[in-house]
Amino acid sequence: MSETKITHPHDRLFKRSMQQIKIAIDLFRSCLPPALVNDIDWSTLTLINSEYLLQGLEKLQSDCVYSCKIRGEEGYIIFASEHQSTEKAMMSYRMLRYGVTIMDQHLAQGHQKLPIVLPIVMYHGTVSPYPYSCEIWDCFSHPELAKQWALKPFQLIDLTVLSDEEIEQHGLANVLEMLLKHSRQERVLGWLKKMIAAGKLTIIYSEIGPDYVRDIGKYIIKACGDEKYPEERDQAIALLASAVPEVGEDIMTFAQQFKQEGIRQGMQQGMQQGVQQEKHEIAKRLLERGMSPEDIVQITGLAKKELKALH
């Protein structure tokens, strides 16, 4: 950062001081826990371009970012200087955002694991002591509730291990879960019969409405089943339409349109394959006549790799 952009003498002194690696090392050693100090390879501490790493975020008045090795792995230290005491109640959240942004950049560089990011803030404001919490939990409206539930391992609904019987206990969500669980099965008729027999779609129709049932039908038509069993899929569609007759006609119409679109796409693919095959035949004849590969590529539009394979 140029001197003209540093608007406070504090910022200038901070920047100049923290560009000196020896000063940075002594400062970090003095404030970090001893166990962590021992894990950091201080010979690898390097000041890096924080403007690149933290692009898109509102910058603090003065900050520096360092890379270092922590137990042999890449890590980062975010060091910020703060001399104002206004509007900084969310400082811990800002530092969290800084850390996550650095993690994103680290992954974008091709790394497969997240780095350890250590946030440090130096405060020298007019109010003493520092008037805000350093805990991320205190940025929430209900800190105790946040501490209990926020920033914890995410809740996982693993449909691959849940039985159909367990899913049936999930109220109106069970149709969604059953569809997603069984969507990759080649044969859809069996489990669809069970779902209809249990009255699931009728309940969905009465509780949620016809549009959602139509969406379910479209999903089954497009995502479920396999082309190896087209007759069974047609039966499943007919069964679905008859189970909820109020939207049955719409489902059947969509199924017909989907089938016709598939036929059109198949015809287009066939035509494209036929054109490509014709190009191959022309290229072979031209090769036999001794025409140069460059001229053949220009005439047929084939890629050089294709022509080489034919040759």
Walkthrough of the structure:
- The chain is an alpha+beta fold and 311 residues long.
- 56% of the residues lie in helices and 12% in strands.
- The chain contains 15 helices and four strands.
- The protein has a four-stranded mixed beta sheet.
- The longest helix has 44 residues.
- It is flat.
- The model has no long low-confidence stretch (mean pLDDT 81).
Structural class: alpha+beta
Q: Poorly predicted ranges (pLDDT <50, ≥5 residues)?
A: none
Radius of gyration: 32 Å
Shape descriptor reads flat
User: If strands are numbered along the chain, what order do they take across the biggest sheet?
Assistant: 1-2-3-4
Helix-strand pattern? HHHEHEEHEHHHHHHHHHH
Percent of residues in helices comes to 55-70%
Percentage beta strand: 5-15%
Total number of β-strand segments?
A: 4
- Number of continuous helical runs: 15
Distance separating the two termini: 60 Å
Mean pLDDT: 81
Largest sheet: 4 strands, mixed
